[in-house]
């Protein structure tokens, strides 16, 4: 049995159309106009047990709406879905015992109280056996390194500390599937890395199915085997992350600070995006050359003071994907 | 990249499938109330000041009515004691609602700003989970005030106390589910925070005036659309002496409001649109 099975899932919201300004508001008061907005347009996919899936798309693509339908928060306009054999919106409560969810922008933790108090409440919400709960809680505290701020009110925690507590709270009841909606939003690189390691550990050790949305290419590369990409509510890619990278992550952005102004730079597969004296931003087509080769060539004639290598924004990759894929689904 | 040991079965640590569901629901409810209280007491000085201010606020009204009854001992058959008991029933019912079911008055806001997500992702009855997840600190002052008034002016015999407890129960149910019904309008009408607040305010205001001063159409409204009459009549029709038709009417009204509130809320959930507002539980 598939852990997640989605067929022709669709969600249409009714959105009020209003012209700008006070006059627009007055017109809208007497003669309101509504338009249908399709947030998710008939998507179909499935996820196996223990899979780690990145659910991607630009802002407004329908990612959060889909995750909310799969966790029973929203009812779809049409289509069907099962998660662990349950229909999320009609068997919400039964399903909720078996899944965990983390919404980066919505906290389960009580703002004025220490995380330990929320853990206690979660044990009552999920009706956990006391001994099992205590063992599980202690294990998560150790693993997520929460010991030092367990008694500190949540309002005094940093965003990274809060997110670690958030994920630990969602794992207390040993969920079979974990839905993460932008779990690393707003976190610094070190905390992001730690959170990714912890999620990977949970997947490896307990076989938890991971379904994650993110705008962070690092999350996808480090966490996920497979990527499902949607745009404008429709599915545009469904395949292995390696394949996606091979196909679409063809460019890297290299920012350099050199000791001296290098003048004009030219090499196959390299284009200069920006140059201001010693500061240069290059776009490197990794299908033609490698970062290593470009840097080696530069270092042969110039001294590099500082350097960063970045993936292009996820939006760029998705835009490229959307242009390439005309078919709805690509299976490998 | 992950090379997970892919086919592990996850052993549940939940007692969910075992007997004792109601006991566990009660444990959850009390755990939530304890956390609310702990959260409220996090700011000790503010907590004490808020409770004290609310008691003082209510005392002002008692002084006003005391001055009135000094000049006119009876108002349409209502004595000073009846008015005090009306305040006890109204402030007590409102207090219990706001202490133990503190989100009742915020339901419209929670719906329209998409803040039900967290409650919907948890395996507990959504309405109960929402209602008990907040405590109004100032309402502790209302409940303490109601108890003082009852002890000072009421019949503290066993039967008298039972009648007062019943009055509080009915008053609390009417307050909670009237607020739930008013809040649920947001599922259909969008932002009804203002409307819900006005309806709740009307109920609260009319619940603190003797029913005897209202006649004709006004009286009909108070026993139908805004059922404040069932709260404000408690002193003469239940606490002073038990008027069975009134008791049946008040009980039926509380039961109908309760059922309609629950039904409307769960119907409304299918229309819930969530939202992207940042949210933290307080």
TrEMBL record, chain A:
<dbReference type="InterPro" id="IPR027417">
    <property type="entry name" value="P-loop_NTPase"/>
</dbReference>
<protein>
    <submittedName>
        <fullName>ABC transporter</fullName>
    </submittedName>
</protein>
<feature type="domain" description="ABC transporter">
    <location>
        <begin position="24"/>
        <end position="257"/>
    </location>
</feature>
<keyword id="KW-0067">ATP-binding</keyword>
<dbReference type="Pfam" id="PF00005">
    <property type="entry name" value="ABC_tran"/>
</dbReference>
<dbReference type="InterPro" id="IPR003593">
    <property type="entry name" value="AAA+_ATPase"/>
</dbReference>
<dbReference type="InterPro" id="IPR050763">
    <property type="entry name" value="ABC_transporter_ATP-binding"/>
</dbReference>
<keyword id="KW-0813">Transport</keyword>
<keyword id="KW-0547">Nucleotide-binding</keyword>
<dbReference type="InterPro" id="IPR003439">
    <property type="entry name" value="ABC_transporter-like_ATP-bd"/>
</dbReference>
Automatic annotation (TrEMBL), chain B:
<feature type="transmembrane region" description="Helical">
    <location>
        <begin position="126"/>
        <end position="153"/>
    </location>
</feature>
<feature type="transmembrane region" description="Helical">
    <location>
        <begin position="43"/>
        <end position="64"/>
    </location>
</feature>
<feature type="transmembrane region" description="Helical">
    <location>
        <begin position="85"/>
        <end position="106"/>
    </location>
</feature>
<protein>
    <recommendedName>
        <fullName>ABC-2 type transport system permease protein</fullName>
    </recommendedName>
</protein>
<keyword id="KW-0812">Transmembrane</keyword>
<dbReference type="InterPro" id="IPR010390">
    <property type="entry name" value="ABC-2_transporter-like"/>
</dbReference>
<feature type="transmembrane region" description="Helical">
    <location>
        <begin position="246"/>
        <end position="266"/>
    </location>
</feature>
<feature type="transmembrane region" description="Helical">
    <location>
        <begin position="165"/>
        <end position="189"/>
    </location>
</feature>
<keyword id="KW-0472">Membrane</keyword>
<feature type="transmembrane region" description="Helical">
    <location>
        <begin position="220"/>
        <end position="240"/>
    </location>
</feature>
<dbReference type="Pfam" id="PF06182">
    <property type="entry name" value="ABC2_membrane_6"/>
</dbReference>
<keyword id="KW-1133">Transmembrane helix</keyword>
